[in-house]
Amino acid sequence: MTLFDSPAFEGHESINAFYDEATGLKTIIAVHSTARGPAAGGCRMWAYPTAEAAMEDAMRLSRAMSYKNAVADIDHGGGKAVIIGDSKTQKTPALFEAFGRAVDAVGGRYWTAEDVGVSPTDLQAARRTTRFVAGLDGHAAASGDPSPVTAEGVFRGVKLAVKRAYGGDLTGLTVAIQGVGHVGAFLAEKLHAAGAKLIITDVNQAALDEVAAKTGAKIVAPEAIFDAEAEVFAPCALGGAITLATLERLKGRVVAGGANNQLASAEAGEALFAKGMVYAPDYVINGGGIINVAGEIRALEADTAFDPAWVEGKLSRLMETLDEVFQRSLDEKRPTHEIAGEIARARIEAARR
Ligand code: NAD
Fold it and tell me: Which of 56, 151, 218, 256 could form a disulfide with 280 if both were Cys (CB 3.0 to 4.6 A apart)?
């Protein structure tokens, strides 16, 4: 298969590959669309087995950012950078300075930020060689950790989904959270404060103990989370939690959480819908983080301070979009992930025209 035939390619505007001999940097910056504005999406550092695998991942993630950014109604297209390497052993400030030069060479059509394997300290180094970096600490425009905003959006989205499925609020309902890292831990506290009971799992015992101490959550083994007696399943760990097999085991009628790429396949999405469950499409419910990043870019560009009120306005609007997705799914008898995809594509198309 050639680059242009790959399913992940789907209309990408450009794929940029950079090599820096001095530092050994190998990075791919995929720009799916700039129709709505400069592409925005994080940089992931991962020990990909081949350059092809890195390119596929960059394109898949970049296209997903186009959809997420369009649904969140921010003035950005979708893009993503990947650095090929082990983030535990191969990171140096010089490597990220070289990465900054690569971002700069894309000429402002791509803004980078944090993703798996990349920290604010790494971005600080990249910032020395390009201005197209968000997610920094210590300046007036800085947006800080996006996780609390992501979790706030997920919390509101869970409430909307519960209302659709059960007709009430969270009081007395149980939410099973898979993964209590940054997003999952903040989400757990919000759900607990709203009167929900919690069942949690993680592969990190310290994270589990901390959340359980704060919320009284019951801890279960990673594999047991799918069998939890819970009205809501909230995936907040890695992608692919919803397969045809795990779906069979869920006891509740809501799937709503912060993780990216929750559906392992399109069939899993269709099966969710066929079972009469309410699914909050991942890139809709978890858009709070990128809205926060967009708030920083906006402030950097205007040379002003970060404005939390702007972020709140966009987050509220995103939740209206999520509720619209639920309503259309009901009216048109179609899965929510299909409807969210249509909304995203229509917004990107409209901007293109
Ligand atoms: P994180 O790394 O802080 O948390 C993930 C947690 O999942 C960790 O505690 C990890 O130990 C746990 N985990 C890993 N494998 C597991 C398994 N098999 N079973 C149970 N737990 C497991 O990451 P995060 O920032 O909280 O992000 C969580 C998810 O949300 C990711 O999919 C991420 O892409 C997505 N997301 C995050 C943000 C954000 O603002 N941080 C925004 C949008 C989407």
Answer: 256
CA of 351 to the centre of ligand 1 (A): 32
Which residues are annotated as catalytic?
80
From the centroid of its chain, how far is CA 49?
Answer: 24
Contact criterion met (CB below 8 Å) for 177 and 187: yes
202 Cβ inside 6 Å of ligand 1: yes
Residue in 245, 229, 246 with CA at minimum distance from that of residue 237: 246
Instruction: Read off the tokens for 52.
Output: 């092809």
The response to whether residue 174 sits with its C-beta less than 6 Å from ligand 1 reads no
Classify the C-alpha dihedral 198-201-207-208 as positive or negative: positive
Mean pLDDT by 10 residues, the chain (353 residues): 85 97 98 98 96 94 96 98 97 98 98 92 96 90 91 98 97 97 97 98 97 98 98 95 97 97 93 97 97 96 96 98 98 97 96 93
Task: Say how many C-beta atoms besides its own lie within 10 A of residue 312's C-beta.
Answer: 15
